[in-house]
Amino acid sequence: MSYQNVTVTDCDRLIQENNPLILDCRDVKNYQVGHLDNALHVHEGLKESLIKRGDKQRCLLIYCYHGHASQHLAEFFSDFGFKDVYSLEGGYAAWKESNQ
User: Fold this and answer.
1) Would you call 24 helix, strand, or coil by DSSP?
2) Any idea which residues carry the catalytic annotation?
3) What is the pLDDT at residue 1?
4) How high does pLDDT run on average in the chain?
5) Statement: residue 31 has pLDDT above 80
6) Domain segments of the chain: what residues?
7) What string of DSSP letters covers 37-95?
8) Which of 16, 41, 55, 80 could make a disulfide contact with 31, Cβ separation 3.0–4.6 Å?
């Protein structure tokens, strides 16, 4: 596996220490209702832009609803040469529950 899964606790530490680019791969409606601070909504244009011009040394933290789709996207970015890629276990649901 070319990316790492992180727990909510590790995610919070990762955000504090590494200032990752945070990517939300849920649908736009759910993104608009709520998301992690500074998260970008993933769409095809953003993916293409990151692949072509993104800093492949910058840490990426990716999440979805429950932690499954984010693993596929984390693998996708890893396959394109991003070195430090993380997928949030349990996704936004786990993060939201932990941060209430």
Assistant:
1) strand
2) 64
3) 61
4) 95
5) yes
6) 4-98
7) TTPEEP-HHHHHHHHHHS-TTS-EEEE-SSSSHHHHHHHHHHHTT-SSEEEETTHHHHH
8) 41
